[in-house]
Amino acid sequence: MTSKSSNKIFVVREYREFLDEIKSTNPKLYNRLCDKIREIRLNPFKSKFKNLKNSDGYRRVRLGKFCIIYFVEGN
User: Fold this and answer.
1) Are 26 and 64 in contact (CB under 8 A)?
2) Beta partners for 59?
3) Which of 7, 16, 33, 60 is deepest in the core (most CB within 10 A)?
4) pLDDT band with cut points at 50, 70 and 90 for residue 1
């Protein structure tokens, strides 16, 4: 992942295992998920990325039937 952004993404172990499994079983979905993670890294506050209701700072983005939930620390 090469990017001009200094944002860092930390992935929980369960999601990393899921990505590893998807990479071998559904490479197209794997690429779409990785593209979405890159998009979050570049601009985590993009308007189409929504705040989770009743949460403190957590955000979500949908990708088909999947939902990526993330938290931004700092600015």
Assistant:
1) no
2) 51, 70
3) 33
4) very low
Position 12: which residue type?
V
**Burial code of 20-58, b = ≥16 C-beta within 10 A, e = fewer?**
eebeeeeeeebeebeebbebbbeebeeeebeeeeeeeee
pLDDT in tens, 8-29: 777 788 888 988 999 999 999 9
Q: What is the pTM of this model?
A: 0.75
Specify the residue for token string 């989770």: 52
* Cα–Cα distance, 44 to 39 (Å, whole number): 8
Band of residue 2 on the pLDDT scale cut at 50, 70, 90: very low
Q: How far is CA 42 from CA 2, 8, 20, in A?
A: 11, 10, 23
Q: Token pair for residue 70?
A: 């993330």
